[in-house]
């Protein structure tokens, strides 16, 4: 810079040659000042960059197996594990259908959902997703409830309230099929109803004679002595799984933050499970806060947990996720989804939306994998390597 200025000044002929040292000194001082300024700006910017760790949002909805996410945040367990990995994690409550829509729209990074919705929502929409926690299976939490003595053989022509395209519809059909009423499936009148509205809507209108939903809503509806359960998920164990699912692109972020997120979530989840299924004051607090997540009493929440087959240890979760049983159950679910057109309008075969398992096997076309089960994080928790 000094040489350029010197050449320009000499060319103009307006400054004596003896003044050049002064010009050089001025230019040198300016360069030093500029360098110091740049250094200061970089130094002041560095802490700001460090103060903005990767942030992740997890969506959850009211359900016995998912209420612990509320406790996980309130107790500080989630923050402890997020801090360990230098990230931030937020949990956000949704109505169930809205949580799935938000996940598919990529407004949240991870979401609690069942195995069926993981397949017929994000996977069917082309969103590649990975299961990082196998939380439980419904063991009586989901139920078909009716009034006036209605049974499966009498349901034809009657309205059935449920959240359509979810496990409620799956449960209803499994009940019809297992009762020998498959031929009457087309005669059912399904009334799509939000989970936030379904209990009061059913209870406040006696003309509604059938409803399919899950606890705690099932418990609220069964307070009406004229309502009875004619089928529940305990009759199809392991078919309705409750999972934590993350978009694969988030999990595989080049900066490694997605891997940290998965590890932090597993660490926080199994610490939460340890408290929830333990004893003493820690368990009492975990039960109290988890119950409060859905406005339930502790006794009501304990009742819900009795019909929730929790994989409360990472070993139990990893063992199920790597077992042949999972593949068998998922095949039933994917066949149902395809038969009902839930895998996308352009899907011509059940194999067009494929599922990958921890052993490397794939159900469906290997170039069409959109749902993945990854037991690695659960196994790391089991081995104490988180």
From TrEMBL:
Membrane spanning residue stretches: none
Alphabetized UniProt keyword annotations: Signal
Official protein name in the record: ABC transporter periplasmic binding protein, urea carboxylase region
GO CC, any one term: periplasmic space
Subcellular location(s) per record: Periplasm
Family of the protein in this entry: Belongs to the bacterial solute-binding protein SsuA/TauA family.
UniProt-listed InterPro entries: ABC_transptr_urea-assoc_sub-bd
SUPFAM superfamilies linked to this entry: Periplasmic binding protein-like II (SSF53850)
Organism lineage string: Bacteria, Pseudomonadati, Acidobacteriota, Terriglobia, Terriglobales
């Amino acid at each position: 810079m000094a040489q350029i200025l010197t050449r320009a000044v000499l060319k103009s002929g307006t400054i004596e040659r003896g003044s050049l040292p002064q010009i050089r000194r001025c230019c040198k001082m300016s360069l030093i000042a500029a360098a110091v300024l740049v250094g200061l700006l970089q130094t002041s910017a560095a802490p700001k960059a460090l103060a903005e760790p990767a942030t992740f949002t997890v969506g959850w909805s009211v359900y016995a197996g998912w209420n612990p996410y509320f406790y996980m945040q309130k107790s500080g367990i989630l923050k402890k594990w997020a801090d360990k990995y230098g990230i931030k994690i937020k949990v956000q409550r949704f109505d169930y259908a809205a949580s799935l829509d938000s996940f598919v729209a990529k407004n949240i990074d991870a979401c609690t959902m069942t195995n069926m919705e993981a397949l017929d929502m994000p996977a069917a929409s082309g969103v590649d997703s990975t299961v990082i926690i196998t939380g439980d299976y419904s063991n009586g939490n989901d139920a078909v409830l009716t009034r006036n003595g209605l049974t499966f053989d009498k349901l034809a022509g009657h309205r059935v309230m449920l959240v359509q395209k979810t496990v409620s519809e799956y449960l209803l059909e499994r009940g019809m099929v297992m009762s020998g009423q498959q031929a009457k499936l087309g005669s059912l009148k399904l009334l799509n109803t939000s989970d936030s509205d379904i209990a009061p809507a059913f209870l406040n209108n006696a003309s509604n004679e059938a409803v399919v939903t899950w606890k705690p809503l099932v418990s609220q509806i069964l307070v009406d002595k004229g309502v009875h359960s004619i089928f529940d998920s305990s009759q199809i164990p392991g078919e309705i799984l409750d999972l934590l699912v993350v978009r694969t692109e988030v999990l595989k972020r080049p900066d490694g933050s997605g891997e940290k997120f998965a590890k932090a979530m597993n660490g926080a989840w199994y610490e939460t499970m340890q408290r929830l299924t333990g004893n003493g004051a820690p368990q009492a607090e975990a039960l109290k806060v988890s119950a409060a997540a859905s406005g339930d009493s502790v006794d009501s929440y304990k009742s819900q947990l009795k019909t929730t087959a929790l994989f409360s240890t990472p070993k139990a979760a990893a063992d199920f996720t790597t077992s042949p049983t999972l593949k068998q159950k998922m095949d039933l679910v994917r066949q149902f989804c395809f038969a009902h057109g839930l895998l996308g309008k352009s899907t011509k075969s059940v194999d067009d939306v494929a599922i990958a398992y921890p052993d490397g096997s794939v159900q469906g076309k290997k170039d069409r994998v959109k749902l993945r089960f990854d037991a690695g994080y659960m196994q790391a928790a089991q081995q104490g390597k988180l």
